[in-house]
Amino acid sequence: MRKFYYNLFNVNPPDFYRYARKQSTHRWSHSAGLFLLIFVILSFSRTAFAQLNYSFSGYVVDLPVYSISNKELSNLLSIDQNQFLNLTRLRLRPEIYLWGGARMNIEYEADLLYSRQNPFLFINQTSSRRQIVNMKWDLINKDNIDVSHYIDRLYLRQGFGWGNIIVGRQRIAWGVGRVWSPTDLFNPINPAYFGKIEKDGVDAASATYSFGNFTDLNVVYNPQGKLKTSNAAFRFRTNFDKYDFAVVGGYFDQRVFAGGDFAGNLFEAGIRGEGIISMDKNNFNNNFIRLVFGLDNQFTSKLYALLEYQFNGQGSADKLKYDILGLYNGNIINLSRNYLVVSGSYQITPLFTATVSDNENLNDGSGYLNIIGVYSLSDNATLTIGGLKSYGATLSEYWYYPSSYYLEGQLFF
Question: Are strands 145-159 and 136-142 parallel, antiparallel or unpaired?
Answer without folding.
Answer: antiparallel
